[in-house]
Design brief:
By secondary structure, the protein is mainly alpha-helical. The protein is built from 12 helices and 4 strands, in the order αααβααβααβαααβαα. InterPro entries: Ca-bind, EF-hand-dom_pair, EF_Hand_1_Ca_BS, EF_hand_dom.
Amino acid sequence: MPRPLTAQSNNELQMRLRAQSQLPLATDILNKIRLLCLQRGATGILGLGRMFRRMDDNNSGDLSREEFIKGLNETGLHEQLTADDVQQLFEIIDTDNSGTVNFNEFLKHIRPPLSACRISIIEKAFRKMDKTGDGVVTYEDLKGTYNVKSHPDFQNGSKTEKEILTRFLNVFEEGGIQDGQVTWDEFLDYYSGVSASIDEDLYFDLMMRHAWKL
């Protein structure tokens, strides 16, 4: 028997369905990419970011046109984009006509808009985890910070705290570097997706405070 959806998973399902219904009407290429990511759920933009960061061998933040297209291909997004879509997208992001794009700037364009209060609470959660202040969060940082007590799998005894924390950290590993770490940009990518599934600022704020014991 399938388990009932939690409030958060139901919100995410509604977001995915909403993105799917809006996609055929999208004319702006950046909005089309955003909807393609949101159609995959809260981790859609995170997964795209992880893929591009994995390809950035020299940590410059820049990708050539070939690398950019390869990244879209490896995430599967190219299947729903025409050659003209990709060309238009690259030209929009390549603002200085250098033949390269900065993928962090690209992600800023496609993240769903975040209100100031939502950005503030996301930053507060990350700062609480990042005990060393180095901009990177590990499993040890998560322990004692992320609230697992209200997690359905913890409540029914099917998973331990360690298993839940590990699974949460693994969300940030899919399609990217398996390093057991979460950067601020990855955290923001993830919660921009979660945010898109929640209409009310107050509910988002309460969810974050409860999840991260803020």
